[in-house]
Each structure stands twice: as structure tokens, then as C-alpha cells.
Design goal:
This protein is of the alpha+beta class. It contains three helices and 15 strands. Strands 2, 4, 7, 8, 9, 10, 11, 12 and 14 form a nine-stranded antiparallel beta sheet that branches. The protein has a two-stranded antiparallel ribbon with strand order 1-15. The longest helix is centred in the C-terminal third of the chain and has 23 residues, at about 135-155. The two termini are about 30 Å apart. Residues about 5-20, about 135-145 and about 175-180 have low confidence and may be disordered.
């Protein structure tokens, strides 16, 4: 009877070992955001959610299927300033839930984020997404308002002098607009992609 119990335990252990898998360090996983987060509204401690958009296979067996759930949290949030200071958003991945209900704690590192033409870039060492500079759009605002002022001054005064005065006024308005307007925020809308990489092995039992 005792030998039979030991044999049963050994068989069970062998079965569990056969079904266990370990995701190696360096493995990549693509995620899609389920909700939207931004540096304008998010605060440290806020949760965000994503789903896996690519599977992970170990030994010819899919161990993390597509549409598994991922939970993370915001670790740092800073809005863009009016004169200086770029928007920043720190993220941390915390929990992986497979479709069979099993949940694992994990902390992969962000490898890339969906910029979508926004200019935001990832600091992978700190898992912080930072917004790029607004120099181009700022210059555009000043040039546009200066040009509009010049055109209006020329029409009103019917002279190059009027155009010059109008350009000066328009440029001042454009500069004031830039100084009083916040820069772009970091945004990760619903459906945007995150590429993460495992910096340490993760055992899935």
C-alpha cells in the first residue's frame, strides 16, 4: 500500500514536471493595450491592462497563448510643462494571467512602445516613456501667426511698414501662445502596442 502511494506520487510529480515550462531570459512578448493611459490623467498606482498579441512557445508547445491577460501599474507620471519639461510616464508589468486561469507574477522590461507619430520614446533602463521636443511645432506656430499678422498689417496699412508691424505683433502672439500652451503628453491609447522582454526566466507550472 505504501509502495503504491509512493509510486502514485512519483507519477504525479513526473506528470507535473512534463507539463512545466520555463520562459527563457531574452524572450519577447507583444502586448496590446486594453485601456488608455496618459501622462495628463494617470497617477502613480493606477492600473493598466493589456492582452498578449503574440504567443510564446517552449519546446514546440504554446505556453502563453494569444489573448492572455497582463496587468501593470503606473510608477511615475509627469505632465508636460508650458515653458520647459517634457511629459513622462513610468510603467511596470506585474501579473500574467493565462487563459486557463493560472496567474504568475512577472516583471519584464519594456523594449519598445507604439509612438504612432507622437515623438515619444522609451527609456528602457527605467521603463519610462518620454515625450519628444516640440521645437518644430513651436516654430510653426510663431511663423504662422507672424505671417498672418504681416498679411493683415499690409491690408490695413497698404504698405510694407504695415506688414512689418503686423509681423511683429503676430510673432509676439505666436510666442505668447507657445509659452502659455503645454507640450504634448505621453499617450498609450487603447489598442497601442508594447513590446516587452523577459530579463529573467519565468517558470510556468
Amino acid at each position: 500500500m505504501r509502495l503504491a502511494s509512493i509510486a502514485a506520487l512519483l507519477i504525479t510529480a513526473a506528470t507535473l514536471a512534463a507539463h512545466a515550462a520555463e520562459i527563457p531570459s531574452g524572450e519577447h512578448l507583444l502586448l496590446r493595450m486594453v485601456n488608455s493611459i496618459s501622462s495628463r490623467t494617470s497617477e502613480p498606482g493606477d492600473y493598466f491592462y493589456a492582452r498578449t498579441a503574440s504567443p510564446i512557445s517552449v519546446n514546440d508547445r504554446i505556453v502563453v497563448p494569444v489573448n492572455s491577460y497582463v496587468q501593470g501599474s503606473v510608477t511615475f507620471s509627469e505632465r508636460s510643462g508650458k515653458v520647459k519639461g517634457r511629459a513622462q510616464l513610468g510603467l511596470r508589468l506585474e501579473k500574467l494571467t493565462l487563459r486557463n486561469g493560472r496567474t504568475y507574477a512577472f516583471t519584464p522590461v519594456l523594449s519598445s512602445v507604439d509612438a504612432a507619430g507622437t515623438g515619444q520614446k522609451l527609456d528602457g533602463d527605467e521603463n519610462i516613456v518620454r515625450q519628444g521636443p516640440d521645437h518644430g511645432s513651436d516654430a510653426g506656430k510663431i511663423v504662422f501667426t507672424a505671417g498672418s499678422g504681416a498679411a493683415l498689417g499690409a491690408i490695413v496699412d497698404r504698405s510694407w511698414k504695415g506688414a512689418g508691424i503686423g509681423a511683429g505683433i503676430g510673432g509676439a502672439v505666436g510666442l505668447a501662445t507657445v509659452l502659455l500652451t503645454r507640450g504634448r503628453e505621453v499617450k498609450l491609447p487603447q489598442g497601442s502596442s508594447l513590446d516587452v522582454v523577459f530579463d529573467r526566466p519565468l517558470r510556468l507550472d
